User: What shape does this take?
Amino acid sequence: GQIGLVASATDFLIYTIFLVVNGAVIALRFRAPEVSRPFRTPWALGRTPVLPVLALLTVVLMLAYLDREAAGIGAAILAVGALAGGLQRLGAGVAG
Assistant: This one.
């Protein structure tokens, strides 16, 4: 029916992935700074990587401009995926 709504819901999901990835980069800098990494993001203030922080701010800004209905659909899809993943882990824990 409404391809624009589907595209916006997909945008929400992609933005969520960007949030998780950039958040993980920042978290790893603080939780495991001693781990050797083949790639490091340039420009840091102390242990805080500047580019992932800027990316987080940009994604939050982009999320603010999404249609609320699309964000709701995207959040519902994300919740179903998280529930399915949780059930899969629970099943694997019971079986193993």
In short: The helical segments are 3-31, 50-64, 68-95. The longest strand covers residues 44-45. The radius of gyration is 17 Å.
